[in-house]
Specification:
single chain; 26 strands; globular; about 725 residues; five-stranded parallel β-sheet; alpha/beta
Length: about 725
């Protein structure tokens, strides 16, 4: 509600008093006060951002954690490797990247320590605010840290980003966006200062940085500080943000990095560390970029991939949980344990989706089911956590026959996240649910056949709808997106979707979406002309985060700008679909439903409350009609409907009056929206009440990434006084 005149007067007086106090301080005192006020302001913003509520699952038995060793271990004098991950990884997940590298080093007799410093930064600015910022397009998260690299290097604080209003409508209170970005500068500077001062980096001779999501700016800023404080330290970057030409470009633009690993790090890290320690050349080291004798960047060919099968890692997340305890986050988060059971994509290895930016790790490799199960049981026993987040790009199909049934047989009270392909049978989804797979990302992307064909998804709309329907019955949350703006799309696709969506409001709506993005390594990027795309270089906003030559910037970033060939016609108008999705989400929040209840006498009742603004409509089915409706549960080819129903249910077929009677019922149900005609099939939409799971589904991916931290939304008006002294 609007602030009163008295409130405004008091705010003005307080603002004036704070400014007068700030003016009385000397330089160092002023800096400390500025950082303190900026931190307080950000934490208040964080408190007022809507949180996710309490997440289901088990909390960690922190009291049962193994005792933390000193950073130097049993032999403080021995050379050690520091493994570092910086913002913007999710603080509810320990870094499996660092744990994997640490395990591979242990196997080679090389000691290391893990530093998941993204957790420290999230605790400093607040978990909800961190999550909001980290989920934005990469240029702003990168800029928050890259300004602390380029400012000291070039005297350029990259203020051009501020002129672009980068938070915009993504922030709950747009009027405070500038103040939040202003407050982040001193708080981030303080974080970087503390990072260097509060750890004894002299214990290490090599520091390895893991770069996955928007971590380049932070990693460059920290690498600069560490190398200037400890000139003999050797700095290595690696991870997906270093793949292809991106890795060698990092070496060209950042002199504080000694080597970059392009491939899966556990293949070469131990050998790389030994060579750096012995001052031996890196020539011939597979998948590594380094500087030659003349200072030019040399990239060694990459020929290896990690082999699957019986490979097993000793994943140690002790450092992460001790960090949660030390930062006072044990009551603010309900962590997931990341694990890996495969790499690559078995579908993409055959047919890569046109927008998919996977690179040379596309080749699919899976670990043996018994190895994965053993690792999961060890992790649960060690940490008391039964919430497992699969890092796989897609679930191995054979796990439906071995791993998941074994988990169900052992009655583990576990919860899983997995990425899956959408064309699953109901029996397969039942296997997932029985094993505790309660949150999936199925890559639905669209509900229109033409758009799915343009994406090369390999599924039909009716399969996507079936997945949503059966997942709803089984208590599985589906996180999925709608993609728009594909080259070659037509208006007819969006007209069809806008007509279809109101019939689906009892199902899980898309959790995100928007116009497709041009990602490096995707078929759209690699063969743009073949798809009617003109590549325009790196996304224009990245020039505000990385003030480097355009040629280098084009090689550095993953997200790119493009122009569609005008010959493809005018862009489709998606406004009707946008509005339909907004209505869908509102209906879901209001409890929209469409359910069939079968009565003991064989009759059925369908209660339709998809239009939450009206009283529910009730449709009574005679016993034979109930059988017919159930027959349509998985969709039946319309031209075969009468014949298949007669073969499987001859009695109800006769009771309904044969083929003409069936056609009449289907026509009535089509008018009432109880069934749809899609992809040549007739599909029943109502959920079966007797099959519906009673368990609460896990929340969306965004809220899971944030953790259970919030107290609900609130007006931003009360933040104005704090903001006034920061700008």
């Amino acid at each position: 509600m609007p602030a009163s005149a008295d409130d405004a007067s008091q705010a003005a007086q307080l603002s004036a008093a704070l400014k007068a106090h700030m003016a009385s301080l000397d330089g160092s005192e002023l800096e400390r006060e500025h950082r303190r006020l900026a931190g307080s302001f950000l934490r208040e913003v964080d408190r007022r951002i809507a949180g996710s509520g309490t997440l289901p699952g088990q909390r960690v038995d922190f009291a049962g954690l193994p005792a933390q060793e000193s950073p130097g271990g049993a032999h403080p004098a021995e050379a050690r490797v520091a493994l570092v991950s910086l913002p913007w990884m999710s603080p509810t997940l320990p870094s499996i990247q660092l744990a994997t590298l640490a395990s591979s080093l242990r196997q080679e007799g090389i000691a290391s320590d893990v530093h998941e410093l993204y957790v420290d930064y999230a605790a400093r600015i607040g978990l909800n605010l961190y999550n909001l910022l980290g989920n934005l397009l990469g240029y702003l998260p990168e800029w928050i840290f890259s300004r602390h690299y380029y400012g000291p290097e070039q005297g350029d604080h990259l203020t051009g980003m501020l002129e672009q209003r980068p938070l915009g409508s993504d922030f709950p209170w747009p009027e405070l966006a500038d103040s939040v970005l202003a407050a982040l500068e001193p708080v981030t500077e303080e974080f970087l200062d503390d990072l260097v001062q509060q750890t004894d980096w002299s214990r290490y001779d090599v520091v390895g940085f893991s770069l996955t999501i928007s971590q380049l700016g932070a990693s460059m800023a920290v690498a600069r500080r560490l190398k200037r404080a400890f000139p003999s330290l050797r700095v290595v970057f690696g991870g997906s943000q270093c793949a292809g030409p991106m890795g060698s470009t990092i070496l060209r633009i950042c002199p504080y990095v000694d080597a970059v690993v392009h491939i899966e790090g556990e293949l070469v890290l131990a050998d790389l560390v030994r060579r750096l320690r012995d001052a031996r050349p890196l020539t011939g080291l597979s998948g590594v970029s380094h500087r030659g004798a003349d200072g030019e960047v040399v990239t060694e060919p990459a020929a290896e991939l990690v082999v699957g099968g019986s490979r097993k890692l000793d994943l140690d997340y002790d450092a992460y949980f001790h960090r949660l305890v030390r930062l006072g986050l044990t009551e603010k988060m309900n962590p997931w344990l990341p694990f890996e059971s495969s790499r690559g994509c078995w579908y993409g290895q055959k047919v890569q989706c046109t927008f998919c930016g996977l690179h040379d790790i596309m080749e699919f490799r899976a670990w043996d089911a018994d190895v994965v199960l053993e690792q999961l049981e060890e992790l649960q026993q060690r940490y008391g956590v039964g919430r497992f987040y699969s890092m796989d790009l897609i679930m191995p199909r054979e796990y439906l026959r071995n791993l998941l049934p074994r988990i169900a047989e052992r009655h583990h009270d576990w919860m899983f996240f997995y990425e899956i392909k959408a064309n699953m049978r109901r029996s397969e989804l039942e296997t997932l649910a029985a094993a505790g797979v309660r949150w999936v990302q199925p890559g639905i992307e669209s509900l229109d056949a033409d758009l799915l064909a343009l994406m090369r998804k390999g599924v039909k709309p009716f399969q996507n709808i079936l997945l949503l329907k059966w997942s709803q019955e089984l208590g599985i949350h589906c996180g999925w997106n709608l993609l728009f703006g594909l080259p070659g799309e037509t208006q007819a696709s969006y007209t069809r979707m806008a007509e279809l969506i109101p019939k689906l409001t009892h199902l899980q709506p898309p959790s995100g979406g928007g116009r497709f993005q041009l990602h490096r390594f995707s078929p759209y990027f690699e063969q743009p002309e073949a798809h009617g795309i003109r590549w325009d270089g790196a996304h224009r906003m990245f020039r505000y985060a990385f003030p480097i030559d355009k040629a280098d910037l084009d090689q550095l970033v993953y997200l790119h700008d493009f122009t569609l060939d005008p010959a493809l016609g005018a862009p489709a108008d998606t406004s009707a679909v946008d509005a339909a999705v907004r209505d869908w989400r509102r209906a879901q929040q209001a409890g929209a439903s469409l359910a069939l209840t079968e009565l003991p006498d064989g009759q059925g009742v369908i209660v339709d409350h998809r239009d939450v603004g009206k009283a529910p409509a009730r449709h009574r089915l005679e016993p034979a009609e109930t059988v017919l409706y159930r027959h349509l549960d998985a969709g039946v080819a319309e031209k075969l409907l009468a014949a298949t129903f007669q073969d499987e249910h001859p009695g109800p077929f006769e009771a309904l009056g044969g083929e003409s009677g069936i056609a009449a019922r289907v026509a009535r149900w089509l008018v009432d929206g109880l069934v749809i005609r899609i992809d040549g099939k007739v599909l029943a939409l109502a959920l079966h009440a007797h099959r519906m799971a009673s368990r609460h589904m896990p929340p969306s991916s965004a809220s899971c990434a944030a953790g259970d931290t919030g107290t609900g939304a609130a007006s931003g008006a009360g933040l104005a006084t704090q903001a006034a002294v920061l700008t």
